[in-house]
Every structure is written in structure tokens, then in C-alpha cells.
Automatic annotation (TrEMBL), chain A:
Key words of the record: DNA-binding, Sigma factor, Transcription, Transcription regulation
Family matches, as InterPro entries: RNA_pol_sigma-70-like (IPR039425), RNA_pol_sigma-70_dom (IPR014284), RNA_pol_sigma-E_actinobac (IPR014325), RNA_pol_sigma70_r2 (IPR007627), RNA_pol_sigma70_r4 (IPR007630), RNA_pol_sigma_r2 (IPR013325), RNA_pol_sigma_r3/r4-like (IPR013324), WH-like_DNA-bd_sf (IPR036388)
The name this protein goes by in its record: RNA polymerase sigma-70 factor (Sigma-E family)
GO term, biological process aspect, one: DNA-templated transcription initiation
The organism of origin for this protein: Nocardioides cavernae
Stretches assigned to the RNA polymerase sigma-70 region domain: 11-74, 101-149
Any one Pfam family match given in the protein's UniProt record, by short name: Sigma70_r4
Family under the similarity heading: Belongs to the sigma-70 factor family. ECF subfamily.
From TrEMBL, chain B:
Source domain of life: Bacteria
Annotated spans, Disordered: 66-85
Lineage: Bacteria, Bacillati, Actinomycetota, Actinomycetes, Propionibacteriales
Gene3D superfamilies, sorted: TolB, C-terminal domain
Name of this protein: WD40 repeat domain-containing protein
InterPro entries registered for this protein in UniProt: 6-blade_b-propeller_TolB-like
Record field: transmembrane: 37-58, 393-415
Length: 163, 420
């Protein structure tokens, strides 16, 4: 199997799964597409070195890339304070779904939730993936769930069940 | 109600497959190759700059400056210029010199023969008001005067070893040597003094034989030169020329033009003459007792001041010619007069500034024998003068460029990393 065919095979087999994770990480289809493309491009550059376990490399690249992009964009993002106000439940059109609420977390908080509750990693594994301490993972996860509850009180049961 | 884990899966499962660009692999491989090329270039740049630095830092400035410009045996520089401010060196063992002159500050400067590097010499007791100095025709030694206590002393400095030797010492600081000149074979040093005690005088010192001869004069000399056989030629302030043989005979030679004796030819037949504005060079024919001339070829130099600085052989003399039109001074090789085998060759080299031209002393033995072709280089271009003690910043510029490249590449890497 050549490098190119191996890479194509990997993309075909694992592309949809990577896309799902990317969407949860970014909360946006376009950003998710960019994130997957960027991670796959890096994987292609180093394919000889990673072809035995490319998915771990691509996923880790996505996690870090997403946070890195956020760092670059953070100065243009709306202040978090405005997100913290709960939306009035009386207006059904403004009710936040889980998907919308996730978008209002910071990428770090979102990434921790995705790794913990979507990828089913332990706190130690999450910390290793992100290169931070287990305590930081625990703290960020707690903050993320609290924010979800604040942003969408109707999701309290959902979030509370795992908090 | 489902838990968060299930809800996340539900959200993710609703995502449609994302397109992946068909040329992603090719773009990634191209980027990889670019990165490899840049990395290789960076490594080469770093290796080159480190190697270059190591080589340059491991040698002194002089060696670095002249590594590719040294002339085995030495040569006369094609450009003889005052290098300006230089730190003075008290290590007089600078090596064989090609030229010596007094700079604008009144200090002695020599250019070393093999590399053309200028050295401002901190000669002991050098008196800026007594500027006479003379380089031997072979460039190995320098004669100058200094005052030691109450004595005026003529000193010979060996530029190879830096050792000094007193040639002549005369009590009394009222003595001032106005000029010093070596014979063409370097065995005799002649001098002239406007005040030697109560009278003017000229003299000859023979360092090898530790002998000296003094001739008191009833007139003020402008210069005195000595032939290898010991004959003195003296020019007077009134314009007259005299020949004074070792046997004591003195002959006055009438001339139509005011001239200063500048040097005997090796065979003693001619005495080159320094003259005021003219369109020719003049030479005293000792045998015929007449002054002969070699006019400048038509269309070359106009009215110029001529100062002979040595003889290349029995018939070729080296002149410093300063045109009155302000075009600067240049070295000219010529014969005493025009005949079937005469030579006149200009632009052999340039001399920067009248101060340098008026005090210039040249190691004429370093001029190669003429091969008869006009393309022959009689002097050597050593490049821009960089003196010992001055910082040669070329390597710093190189390192700076390498550092800038490395910094640029680091910033590029950082930028790409931040931008993903």
C-alpha cells in the first residue's frame, strides 16, 4: 500500500467520525471543515511517521488547532459576560438547544466536554491529549457544565445528570 | 431525558460528512518539500555563519582582511592614500613595507608590502615638527630622526624585527634634519640640515661600516642624495646643483630651472630631479653635467609638479606627478630623456592628497621588471584599506544577514504555527 492510497483509505474510513468531532469542537460547519482539512493536511505531511496510528495524531491536531484558532480570534469575539445571561424561557424562539449552548462555551471548555463526554476519555487521558493537568481538566469541565446550566436552565437535568 | 453523552452523540450524528479536497495530499506534500528546503537552507546558513565566525574570530583582523589579497614578496599598492584616523602601534615589527609617508596629523604611516595594510607607527620620540623619514628601497627598514634629551639622533628601524639602531647622534637639539634619503642600494643614508650648529650641512651615514661624513655648506641645502659610490648630489635653496665626490671634489652645475635633487640612479650616472610646474620630468646627467628632460607625451599630463621617488633600474625612474589642474597625483615610470628606447608610462598608481605625495617614500625594489607590455601591472590593488586596529565589520555584516534570515524563518515558522 502506497502512502497516498493509505492516506485516502484513512480519510474515507475515518473522515465522517473526524467530521463529527470537529463539528462538536467548533460548533460550526465551515470551521469544522477547515479544522478537518488542516489536521489532515498536517497528517499527510508527516504520513510516513504516523501511518501506523494516524487517527490519534489527527484528533490531537484538531484539539490543539481549534484552541489555537480560538486564541487568534478571541479578541474579536463577544465578551463572555453577555453569554452568561440566561435567555428568557418565555420566548420559545430564543430557547437554547444543547447545540447552541455548546457554541457559547469557550473552545477549551467545549473541547474538554467533547473529550470527556463524546470521546469518553478519562480526566487523565483528556489532560494528556490537551497537555494540561488533570486538575485543570476537572476545573474546566465543572465550569463548562455550570455555564451550560446558566445559559440554558431547561438543560439542567441533562447537564446535572453528568455534572 | 437523555444524558449529556447521548445528547452529544445525537448532535454529532446529525452532521453531514465534510468534503475533503482532492488535492489535499499534493498540497501537503508540496508544503512538506518547501519545509524541507527551508530547513536545509536554514541549517546551511547556520553552519556557514558558524564556520565563518569561527574562522574569522580565530584570526586577527589583518589576516582576515588580506587572506585573499596577499601578494607573496610584496607589491606597491595601486592606491596610496592617507587612511585617516588610525590607532598607533608601538610594535614596529610590522614587516616589510611598500611605502611610507607622513599623514595629515604629522605621524608616520607605512603600508605593509604583502597586504597593503596601513600602520600608524608610534616611533619613539617622533617629533611632528621634524617630519623627515625614509624607507629603504627594499622596504625592510625606516630611517627617521628623534630627539633624545639634548641629542638629535638618526635611527634605523628594522621593520622585520622592530629593533632600532642609532645611525648618527649629534649633541644639541638645534640640529634639524630637513631631509633623509637612502642610496639606491640601501647602503648609505644621506641627510641635509639647514642648521648644523652655526652652519648648514649635509652628510652621509654608512650603517654597515658605522661611518659618517659631514659636509659644512656655505649655502642652505634643500636636499642631498648619495650614490652607491658615495658621491653626494646637493641642491641649494638658490636653485644651484652641486656634486660632491668622496675624494672631496665639488662641482657646481648650472641649470635653467630650479630643481631639487631626488635620487641617484643605481649606476650613479643620473640624478633624478624634483621640479616645479612643468610639462616634463628633469634629470641631471652626471657624466655630461647637464640637465636633460623628458617631456610628457602630448595629450597626457599638463603642467605638473614632479617628485621622483626612486629608480627601478639604471634608466627607469618612478615619479609622483601632481597635475596643477587638481586631478590628483599619480605614479609615472619614465626614462631621463626621449630616445629610441625611452619609456613613459602613466597611471601606474594613484597617490591621495598632496601631504602624502610630498612625504612619500617608496620601496622601489618591489616594482617588477618591465616586460615591455602595456598591460603589465606594476602595482597591486589591495582593495579598500582596512587598518590594523580598525574593526573589519564585513564578517559582522555577514553574521547580521544570517541572523536576519534565521529570525525571518523563525518568525515565519511561528506565524504558520499560530495560523495553523
Amino acid at each position: 500500500m502506497t502512502d497516498r492510497s493509505g492516506f485516502d483509505q484513512f480519510v474515507r474510513a475515518r473522515g465522517p467520525a473526524l467530521a463529527r468531532t470537529a463539528y462538536l469542537l467548533t460548533g460550526d460547519h465551515h470551521l469544522a471543515e477547515d479544522l478537518v482539512q488542516a489536521a489532515l493536511a498536517k497528517a499527510a505531511q508527516h504520513w510516513e511517521r504516523i501511518e501506523t496510528s494516524p487517527e490519534a495524531y489527527v484528533r490531537r491536531t484538531m484539539y490543539h488547532q481549534n484552541i489555537s484558532w480560538w486564541r487568534r480570534r478571541r479578541f474579536t469575539e463577544t465578551a463572555l459576560g453577555s453569554y452568561d445571561e440566561p435567555v428568557a424561557a418565555a420566548d420559545p424562539s430564543l430557547r437554547l438547544t444543547l447545540e447552541q449552548a455548546l457554541r457559547r462555551l469557550t473552545p477549551r471548555q467545549r473541547t474538554v466536554l467533547v473529550l470527556r463526554y463524546f470521546e469518553d476519555l478519562t480526566e487523565v487521558q483528556t489532560a494528556a491529549e490537551l497537555g494540561i493537568s488533570s486538575g485543570a481538566v476537572k476545573s474546566m469541565g465543572r465550569q463548562a457544565l455550570r455555564r451550560l446550566r446558566d445559559l440554558a436552565p431547561e438543560l439542567a437535568d441533562l447537564v446535572g445528570a453528568d455534572a | 431525558m437523555t444524558d449529556l453523552r447521548t445528547s452529544l452523540r445525537r448532535v454529532a450524528d446529525a452532521v453531514e460528512p465534510l468534503p475533503v479536497a482532492d488535492d489535499l495530499w499534493h498540497r501537503a506534500q508540496a508544503a512538506r518539500r518547501r519545509g524541507q528546503v527551508l530547513a536545509a537552507a536554514a541549517v546551511l546558513a547556520i553552519i556557514a555563519s558558524v564556520t565563518w565566525s569561527a574562522v574569522l574570530l580565530g584570526t586577527d583582523d589583518r589576516e582576515a582582511r588580506t587572506a585573499s589579497q596577499e601578494v607573496p614578496g610584496g607589491a606597491i599598492p595601486s592606491r596610496i592614500e592617507d587612511p585617516g584616523d588610525l590607532p598607533a602601534t608601538d610594535d614596529l615589527a610590522v614587516g616589510r613595507a611598500s611605502v611610507a609617508f607622513v599623514n595629515r596629523d604629522g605621524d608616520p604611516v607605512v603600508l605593509t608590502a604583502t597586504d597593503g595594510v596601513p600602520h600608524r607607527l608610534a616611533l619613539p620620540d617622533w617629533d611632528r615638527s621634524r617630519r623627515a623619514l625614509a624607507l629603504t628601497p627594499d622596504g625592510t627598514a625606516l630611517a627617521y630622526q628623534r630627539t633624545r634629551g639634548e641629542d638629535t639622533v638618526l635611527v634605523r628601524v628594522d621593520l622585520g624585527s622592530g629593533r632600532e639602531r642609532v645611525l648618527f647622534s649629534q649633541p644639541g637639539d638645534s640640529l634639524t634634519y630637513d631631509s633623509l634619503a637612502w642610496s639606491s642600494d640601501g647602503t648609505r643614508l644621506s641627510w641635509s640640515a639647514s642648521t648644523f650648529g652655526d652652519v648648514p650641512a649635509v652628510g652621509v651615514v654608512e650603517p654597515l661600516l658605522s661611518r659618517s661624513r659631514i659636509v659644512a655648506l656655505p649655502y642652505t641645502p634643500t636636499n642631498a642624495v648619495v650614490a652607491p659610490d658615495g658621491t653626494l648630489a646637493i641642491s641649494a635653496a638658490n636653485g644651484a646643483l652641486r656634486l660632491d665626490s668622496r675624494q672631496g671634489g665639488s662641482t657646481r652645475i648650472e641649470t635653467q630651472r630650479s630643481a631639487v635633487v631626488a635620487g641617484f640612479s643605481p649606476d650613479g650616472r643620473y640624478v633624478a630631479l624634483a621640479t616645479g610646474p612643468a610639462s616634463a620630468s628633469y634629470t641631471l646627467d652626471v657624466r655630461r653635467r647637464v640637465v636633460v628632460e623628458h617631456p610628457f607625451p602630448e595629450g597626457t599630463l599638463g603642467e605638473s609638479v614632479v617628485r621622483p621617488v626612486g629608480w627601478l633600474d639604471d634608466r627607469l625612474q618612478l615619479l609622483v606627478v601632481q597635475a596643477l589642474d587638481g586631478s590628483g597625483a599619480e605614479l609615472v615610470v619614465t626614462t631621463p630623456e626621449v630616445d629610441d628606447t625611452s619609456t613613459w608610462r602613466r597611471s601606474v598608481g594613484s597617490v591621495g592628497g598632496p601631504g602624502v605625495a610630498n612625504s612619500l617614500s617608496v620601496a622601489v625594489d618591489l616594482v617588477p621588471d618591465l616586460d615591455g607590455t602595456s598591460s603589465q601591472q606594476l602595482t597591486h590593488d589591495f582593495g579598500e584599506p582596512v587598518a590594523v586596529g580598525q574593526r573589519d565589520i564585513s564578517w559582522m555584516i555577514g553574521l547580521g544577514v544570517a541572523a536576519a534570515i534565521a529570525l525571518g524563518m523563525a518568525l515565519r515558522w511561528l506565524w504558520r504555527r499560530l495560523l495553523g
